[in-house]
Amino acid sequence: xxxxxxxxxxxxxxxxxxxxxxxxxxxxELAEVGHGRLSMQRVAARAGVGKSALYRRWPGKDExxxxxxGRFGVPPEPSPDTGTLVGDLRALVVGMRDWLDHPRxxxxxxxxxxxxxxxxxxxxxxxxxxxxxxxARSREVLDRAVARGDIAPEQARGVEAELVVDLLxxxxxxxxxxxxxxxxxxxxxxxxxxxxxxxxAPR
Length: 203
Known about the structure:
With about 200 residues, this protein is an all-alpha fold. It is built from nine helices and no strands. The chain has helices spanning about 15-35, 40-45, 50-55, 60-70, 85-100, 110-115, 120-150, 160-180, 185-200. The longest helix has 29 residues, at about 120-150. It starts with 15 loop residues before the first helix and ends with a helix.
């Protein structure tokens, strides 16, 4: 008679309170020392767990970091449907602003972006876990605009669509990283109206 299978131990079944301790430790270490100096050993010590437990759950620190940061990624709900192109674009801008200005992410996102230039693995994880889902959310808005007849189908794909998606994300980031504060409500509205005018102008 085959012996019953044992449930996996260690990090594979970290208790919720330990998982939260690891999340808190990763975010705190990223804010204090940055991705370059962060180590599995430092996180384990700060979280009060064994380093081996972390390695049973994640093969390395890049995977651990992106798993933790990914918890604050795109919400599962569909993108808001305001009924207008301007309203939908504004909702995207505000969503990006609020994500970048999240109190647990604002201190670490610029460092992760800089580090991703030196780490292909981190760059790929950043694109797939964070940037990719946000770009997909923006494309949903463009597809909806096509269905309403606000823009032509070709505007929801190709170079123009990619530039629109870039613009909606880069302006909130630039305001926060360079100007030192998030884009305000008037700025979000102005950006959405500017993009909408460009997309709906006669051609």
